[in-house]
Amino acid sequence: MKSRDNGGMTELIHNTTIDTLLERRSIRKFSNEALSSEVIATLETVAQHAPSSQFLNDWSAIRVTDPDIKNQLAHIGGQPYIAQAPLLYVFVLDEHRNAAIARSKGVETGDDAFTLTSSYRYTQAQNDAVLALHAMETAAYSLGLGCVVLGSILNDAAALVDLLGLPEYTYPVLGLAIGKPDQEPALKPRMPRSMQFFENEYPSSDERLLSGLDTFDDEVRQYYDLRNTERPVDAFSDQIAVNAVDAAVLNKSVLPLAQRQGFRLDR
Ligand SMILES: Cc1cc2nc3c(=O)[nH]c(=O)nc-3n(C[C@H](O)[C@H](O)[C@H](O)COP(=O)(O)O)c2cc1C
C-alpha cells in the first residue's frame, strides 16, 4: 500500500507501528464478525495506558452493546454505520469518579473550593479521553481491525447524556466504532508537512502559511470518497470555506450542557 506522501524529500523510517499509523484510514463498513473478549480486553487495557494529565485518569468509556442504544446513537449521529459497529464506545470526560473519591477523603465538592469542574480541568480531561481513544484506535488497527471516530454523536449531546445516564461532572467527548473492515477506502491525503509544522514560531504571513495549498487542493479533489461516490470531493480550501460559516455548529454549543452537568467553565 502506498502511504501518504510525507511532504518532503527525507525518507521516512518504517516499522510496524509507524506503518500502522501511516496507513490508517477511517473505516465505515464492518463485517458482522464479533470481536473476542481477548481483543476487547486488550483494546481497553491499551486505552488505560495512555498518558493522563496529573494522573487524574479523568475519563471513562461506555461500551455500547445494546442494539437499541446503538440504533439511537446512529439516529443522533445521522450515520447508520454506527448501529452496525461490532464494537462501539462513547468516551466521556469524567470528574464524577474523582469527585466521589475526593468526597470519600472529606473534600467538600459543593462549594467554590472544588476545582475539578474548572475550565482547565474540563479541557485536560477531554485531552485524556482523546488520547485514550486514540491509543485504542491505533491498537485496533495493529490487530487488523478498522475504526471510525464519531463526533456526530455530539449532534445532540444532551440526548446522549440522557441515553447513557451520564451523571454530574461528566461530558461526552467522542465515539469510536471498531470492527473488521468490509471496505478498502483510499488513504486520504494530508497537507504538506510545512503547512502544519513550524520551527520556533508561527509563520508571520498568510503567504508563507498557505504555500502548498494549491497542490493540496488538487490532491484532495482527486481523493475518492466511498461515502459519496456520486460527486467529486471538494478542494480542501472549499471544504474549509463551507465549514467556516456552518451555522449548525451553533446548535452544539458546549456551555449550556456543561453547566447542566455541573461544570463551571467560566472559572
Ligand atoms: C474528532 C473527530 C470526529 C469525527 N467524526 C466523524 C463522524 O462523526 N463520522 C465519520 O464518519 N467520521 C468522523 N471522523 C473521521 C474523519 O472524517 C476522518 O478522520 C477524516 O475525514 C480523515 O480521513 P481518514 O481518517 O480516512 O484519514 C471524525 C474524526 C475526528 C478526529
From TrEMBL:
* Gene3D superfamilies assigned: NADH Oxidase
Question: Locate the Nitroreductase domain: which residues?
Answer: 22-180
Q: Which SUPFAM superfamilies does this one have?
A: FMN-dependent nitroreductase-like (SSF55469)
Its keywords, alphabetically, are:
Flavoprotein, FMN, NADP, Oxidoreductase
Give TM segment ranges: none
Q: Name one Pfam family in it.
A: Nitroreductase
Q: What's an example of a GO molecular-function annotation for this chain?
A: oxidoreductase activity
For this chain, the family text in UniProt reads:
Belongs to the flavin oxidoreductase frp family.
Q: Under which name does UniProt file this protein? A: Nitroreductase family protein
Native organism is Bifidobacterium angulatum DSM 20098 = JCM 7096
